[in-house]
Amino acid sequence: MPDTLAPTPSNRPDLPTEIARRRTFAIISHPDAGKTTLTEKFLLYGGAIQMAGQVRAKGEARRTRSDFMQMEKDRGISVSASAMSFDYKKFRFNLVDTPGHSDFSEDTYRTLTAVDAAVMVIDGAKGVESQTQKLFEVCRLRDLPILTFCNKMDREARDTFDIIDEIQENLAIDVTPASWPIGMGREFLGCYDMLRDRLELMDRADRNKVAETIEMNGLDDPLLDKHVPAEQLAKLREEVEMARELLPALDPQSVLEGHMTPIWFGSAINSFGVKELMDGIGTYGPEPQIQNATPRKIAPEEEKVTGFVFKVQANMDPKHRDRVAFVRLASGHFHRGMKLTHVRSKKQMAITNPVLFLAADRELAEEAWAGDIIGIPNHGQLRIGDTLTEGEALRVSGIPSFAPELLQTVRAGDPMKAKHLEKALMQFAEEGAAKVFKPAFGSGFIVGVVGALQFEVLGSRIELEYGLPVRFEGSQFTSARWVHGPQDKVDAFIAANKQHIGHDNDGDVVYLTRLQWDIDRVARDYPDITLSSTKEMMV
Ligand code: G4P
Prior knowledge:
Elements: H1 15-20, E1 22-29, H2 35-45, H3 56-61, H4 65-73, H5 75-80, E2 83-88, E3 91-96, H6 105-112, E4 117-123, H7 130-141, E5 146-151, H8 160-171, E6 174-177, E7 179-182, E8 190-193, E9 198-201, E10 212-215, H9 223-227, H10 230-246, H11 252-256, E11 260-265, H12 274-284, E12 293-294, E13 306-314, E14 323-331, E15 333-335, E16 339-342, E17 347-350, E18 355-358, E19 361-364, E20 367-369, E21 373-378, E22 387-389, E23 395-396, E24 400-402, E25 406-412, H13 418-431, E26 435-439, E27 445-449, H14 453-466, E28 470-474, E29 479-484, H15 487-496, E30 501-503, E31 509-513, H16 516-525, E32 530-532, E33 534-536
Parallel strand pairs: 1-3, 1-4, 4-5, 5-11, 6-11
Antiparallel strand pairs: 2-3, 7-8, 8-9, 9-10, 12-23, 13-14, 13-22, 14-21, 15-20, 16-17, 16-22, 18-19, 24-33, 25-27, 25-28, 26-27, 26-30, 29-31, 29-32, 30-31
The structure holds guanosine-5',3'-tetraphosphate.
């Protein structure tokens, strides 16, 4: 076996074909709607796991606070689930996990910069819940195509039209039924596939059995009478007729533009509707898309390889202090051993140990294509937002860093360990787990997060991974804003506002305050200075 798979003219694989079969997506849902169960079935049908139950730990671990911390400690579980690749029919699916907890909105946002589509899972009894709505809004910011799976139809669910109306109204998106449920709860028989005119019957006796499919010649096919009791059939015919009259027909272009979502009904736990959804992702989901970058956009079919870091995970292996940068390939055909330019530092990096994530396993990625997610172990050179290219000075844009909403001062339990603490904090800041500011005046560090739970997770990770007990204390500041402007004006601003100035882990200047009044004052008194609550993660 050669060490690398450098393409030669004779084995040069076909870039457009490889790209066309890739589907890179995330699942968004409210906790408990069935994301873990659905993920598991995806992996099962993708041949990535042998039996249901292997990713179970994750769903359960998330239930309570302390379990969630345990999950964070047990890097193995959450990390292997961060990105998973598997084949389904002619497609290569790359499923990127969105962090489960609502606190991690920034992390979630960045995850969604790495995907081309999202699958929205809703609970048929509950409809659109708060977390789904939030995640949906984030997808909308990027016009991501959304495919919807209405889960738990084996339980009492809402009326089908009501569910569709609710999605249309709450999320302001057209909904088109891809399948139509026949009964619900105890009476749930299966679905009529409206796109392919097929009857799909659920096997209640065996949860792991895939539905029986019977081809139909439309809804008037007498074969239907054989399989569906008269009363349910009459209702099905009436409802589908109404649906075809009242609801928009599937418009693939509108789906790709994010204006329309097809909805499948099913029951993940009973393996029902999942394959239809997977077929739908293949047929209607987008191929890898053009990536925004400066000074020009990147098209996936470009021969040259480019990619960007959307997540950094430290201490995946507690024995080694290395980190893994999750890189979404934006273009080209990557092969192991390639030398890529790290645009921020202008240095070349030989990518010798890239990893592909296959469910619970990691394996060396001999090659990968635009749309794929690879992990690159490194010693801290790679940060969120960084771009890798074959030499061109391109920078992927649109990966923001948000101003934290909660600030606290952090101190080491043992004051002699302040230096160690600084190292730990810098690492977490680079990972994107928190913002760390060093105030120009006074000692210690100020840590900023978006959700309160992050303080706990951070405290526990510093203790676990660095053996450093830490204390969080209230800070005199409550907000942080990045300072932008012409250098001389920024210098003058810093000189005049020293008590409010700090630097983040990249050395960028921030203005720290506890009063909106201060922020308004700066706007009034310093017309050349802009205070911003986001900073694009590129330098
Ligand atoms: P999440 O990742 O979105 O939080 O949801 P998860 O898959 O963990 O599912 C939440 C609960 O809903 C689980 O039950 C799961 O078994 C159940 N569930 C998932 N899909 C279906 C479905 O199609 N029908 C029904 N009836 N239930 C479903 P649990 O009792 O919390 O856990 P477990 O004891 O089943 O493991």
